Amino acid sequence: MTEEQKQAYTRRITQANKTQLVTILYEMTADYMKDAKKAIEGGDGAETDRQIQLAQGCVDQLIHGLDMKVEISQNLLQLYLFAKQELIKAVTDHDPVHFDNAGIVINGLHETYLKLEKMDDSKPEMENTQSVVAGMTYGQSGLNETIADPDANRGFKA
Length: 158
What we know:
Strand order of the largest sheet: 1-2
CATH architecture: Up-down Bundle
Oligomer: single chain
Number of strands: 2
Structural class: mainly alpha
Number of domains: 1
Radius of gyration: 18 Å
Number of helices: 5
CATH class: Mainly Alpha
């Protein structure tokens, strides 16, 4: 994942509600799996393992975020465990087919959560964060970002 992608995810996380946070985790998992697959194809075992660990960390966050009192959580847990098994197999086998198998689950759930996002109008989870405004500059083709209140206190309210 590039630094630009990390910054974009960070900005999105600060403005996300619960549903959007899950969607972001799916996207991050897919990005890490894509990077791991490239590393396998490039023959870089150390980078492959690192990217797989990052993807597994995202899946772990999805698992830990489940409310097991809710019936659908049992089904989601089974899907997440399957994806995690495939990532473990990818570590041991260094075979890109395991990313395809895990990707089917992650991408399918990602599409579902994108639809759920449209129905969720709840407030962002993080309060007291800086607003980021993006727009085109006059006569330029680049994208500029401006922080609305640079002196405001950031992060969670204590």
